[in-house]
Amino acid sequence: MTALTISTSSAATLRADAVVIGVAKGDKSPVVAPGAEAVDKAFDGKLATVLETLGASGGEGEVTKLPAPSGLKAPVVLAVGLGDTPAKGEGFGTEALRRAAGAAARALAGSKKGAFALPVQDSGDASAIAEGALLGAYAFNTYRNNGNSNADGNGNGKKKDDKKEPLAEVVLLGGKPRDKAFKAAAERATALIAEVNRARDLVNTPSNDLNPTSFAAAAQDAAKEHGLKIEVLDDKALAKGGYGGLMGVGQGSANPPRLVKLAYTHPKAKKSIALVGKGITYDSGGISLKPAGHNETMKCDMSGAAAVFAAVVATAKLGLPVNVTGWLALAENMPSGTATRPGDVLTMYSGKTVEVLNTDAEGRLVLADALTRASEEKPDAIVDVATLTGAMVLALGNRTFGIMANDDAFRTAIHEIAEEVGEQSWPMPMPTELRKGMDSPVADISNMGERMGGGLVAGLFLKEFVGDGITWAHLDIAGPAFHEGAPYGYTPKGGTGAAVRTLVRLVERTAAGDLA
Questions:
Q1: Which residue in 59, 214, 371, 488 has a CA-CA distance of 20 to 30 Å to 277?
Q2: What is d(CA 249, CA 283) in angstroms, rounded to the nearest whole number?
Q3: Please, what is the Cα angle at 499 between 408 and 205, to 5 degrees?
Q4: 262 φ/ψ angles, rounded to the nearest 5 degrees
Q5: Helix (H, G, I), strand (E, B) or coil at 447
Q6: pLDDT at position 162, please?
């Protein structure tokens, strides 16, 4: 992972491949942001004019590279847009800083060291810049071959791939390395983003290498490394235990399902929280097969489990005084002669029966078993995370996840936390009238309801499996979990690590006693 350090050196004197400065949109021309004074001085106070001549406007995420003058040790100046200039007396928002740092780090791929001289008023700004830079300095190159290859079969040695490695080191200028708040911000950013990137790696790993068994093995390795307690229920244990949802979804695949319990405990903990993640390592739709054009990215259907896994490990790294248990509901949804059929009835771990009307509504089935099992331990709260419905994407788009809950205050708190850490989200209702659409003539409930409001129907289904008196929330991350477009800000193409930062901040708030 990219190294992060804080330095008191001047942007003019630090040796680096490039120095990163901020530029904002002014009334008529770009404005050089605070932090770049030494760089501006090297340009004889004309840096803004030079940038404007090169077409820079200061727009968010805009990147402009220019050769450095003789007064700087770095050979390149990279100006990154911060968006609108803040009102007098106000600083730039943390998300603007986070995104700008991410865009700059992406632009510096292949470089060894980047010096970030962006506006820093306090440790909160430093944290945002550090997070953004580390998030932006990400690449998934596991399956990319660099160098020459006889790819054309004629010995011509065509270059197979020139994928650049991420920026190797981020040096944060303007901070105070000996200040406890700044030091803590850097340490937290390093631990947190390493886990976001763990989730990204898992999501990006193809399904022929990541299945329920190998996912569970990865969790076992992490548990050993970070002192976590782990329990893995294999298909025999799941069948014996009556986990009808997990078994029903996984029975069509040659790769059997798993339920992983990953637990972090702290001797001073006063609160406990359970995180439940949907982990469909590949979703073909089962017998209700997805059409072409809808299955190519379905390796990402385990993003919820990846987020939960990463959040538990991050909690352990940060040593937070709270008990956190992660439940990874892992299965592969495939069609075969042994697969669950539309019309079949499953007996869930809770004892409820479910008529399966659509085998492509499988995520709620594995989550239902995991929610029931998590409820047995009586945590103070449960949060499930899942790429659950296309309906939520239709409602909120590709960058925003939906939040549903059985407690309005808890839903509001999660929404505020998500906004604080820079993850777009929106609170969604749970209309009771939609429950009737899931009535079944042969079982306690069916796994499908009204088509309109499908994302809300899925949430209502999950609510049926949460223990009485337990505060619960559901995050549908189907939109932002996997980004198919061009990278932007600190968001890469592919797996994004959606919800990890929200979950970790939620755990921090719980540990601090900020949540009832």
A1: 488
A2: 10
A3: 150
A4: -120, 115
A5: coil
A6: 61
Task: Report DSSP letters for 223-260, one per residue.
Answer: HHHHT-EEEEE-HHHHHHHT-HHHHHHHTTSSS--EEE
Query: 3-class SS at 171?
Result: strand
For 403, the token pair is 């939040």
Count the neighbouring beta carbons within 10 Å of the beta carbon of residue 513: 11
* Distance in angstroms (rounded) separating the CA atoms of residues 21 and 81: 9
Give the per-residue pLDDT at 89: 85
- pLDDT, residue 157, reads 47
Q: Please list, residue by residue across 231-257, b when 16 or more beta carbons sit within 10 angstroms of its beta carbon and e when fewer do.
A: ebbebeebbeeebbbbbbbbbbbebbb
Query: What gap in Å lies between CA 425 and CA 406, rounded to an integer?
Result: 17
Residues sharing a CB contact under 8 Å with residue 246, sequence separation 6 or more, in sequence order:
238, 257, 259, 329, 331, 365, 366, 369, 370
Q: Detail the DSSP E strand segments found in 45-164.
A: 63-67, 76-84, 113-117, 147-148, 159-161
Q: Is 333 left (phi over 0), alpha (psi -120 to 50) or beta?
A: beta
Measured distance CA(480)–CA(420) in Å, rounded: 17
What's the CA gap between 352 and 42, in Å, rounded?
A: 71
What distance in Å separates the CA atoms of residue 429 and residue 431, rounded to the nearest whole number? 6
Distance from first CA to last CA of the chain, Å, rounded? 36
pLDDT of the residue at 163: 77
Element (H, E) at 202: helix 180-204
Structure tokens at 79: 């100006």
Residues known to be catalytic: 290, 364
- CB of 355 closer than 8 Å to CB of 443: yes
CA atoms within 13 A on the CB side of 279: 34
Q: What is the pLDDT of residue 146?
A: 65
Residue 30 phi, psi (nearest 5): -65, 150
CA pair distance 444, 430, nearest whole angstrom = 20
Q: Is the dihedral of CA 126, 497, 99, 410 positive or negative?
A: negative
What share of the chain has pLDDT > 90, as a percent? 93
Those residues whose C-beta lies under 8 Å from the C-beta of residue 370, and which sit 6 or more positions away, are: 246, 259, 276, 327, 328, 329, 384
* pLDDT in the model for residue 516: 59
Pairwise CA distance, residues 295 & 373, whole Å: 30
Contact call for residues 276 and 384 (beta carbons, < 8 A):
yes
Nearest to 280 by CA among 260, 257, 296: 257
Question: What is the pLDDT, as a whole number, of residue 145?
Answer: 84
The residue type at 172: L
Ranges under pLDDT 70 in the chain: 146-162, 516
